[in-house]
Design brief:
Number of strands: 2
Number of helices: 6
Order of helices and strands: HHHEEHHH
Strand content: 5-15%
Oligomer: single chain
Largest sheet: 2 strands, antiparallel
Shape: elongated
Mean pLDDT: 89
Length: about 140
């Protein structure tokens, strides 16, 4: 389970996820500097930490690295939700409480997601009565 990203790690990963292409420290720095005063070495250290933690992969290009996200923001959010749910001593109650916090738009998105999962991964049909392995059969 991924540990939640820190505030600066999240700011960096947000850019990597949004841009959805290999990025340099310089590009991330320049974008972050529109919001805050931050040093090149700070961004470089954060991106190196994200690489060490497995959030990004990097490839050398000239004298710099280009960083690419290993997974999507959606996968990160899903892993966090799954971990939180797994920590509950009553998962069903946790889901009910979570669903109760959702807006109407979020509930509609949830219903859409359920339909997609059911379409792509249908449950197997129950065995037919008298089929092999389902009980006594007539001879």
């Amino acid at each position: 389970m991924p540990r939640p990203l820190g505030e600066l790690e999240d700011a960096v990963m947000t850019r990597v996820w949004q841009w959805n292409r290999p990025v340099t420290v310089r590009e991330v720095l320049e974008d972050l500097q529109q919001e805050r005063s931050i040093a090149y070495t700070t961004v470089m250290t954060v991106m190196d930490n994200l690489h060490q933690k497995g959030w990004v992969r990097r490839e050398v290009e000239g004298r710099a690295y280009r960083y690419t996200a290993v997974s999507t923001r959606a996968a990160y959010a899903a892993a966090l939700m799954n971990e939180a749910w797994a920590q509950s001593d009553n998962p069903a109650a946790a889901l009910v409480a979570f669903f109760g916090m959702m807006s109407q738009d979020q509930r509609e998105a949830l219903n859409d997601a359920i339909r997609i999962v059911q379409r792509d991964n249908p449950l197997p049909a129950p065995p037919e009565e008298g089929a092999e392995g389902t009980g006594p059969q007539e001879r």
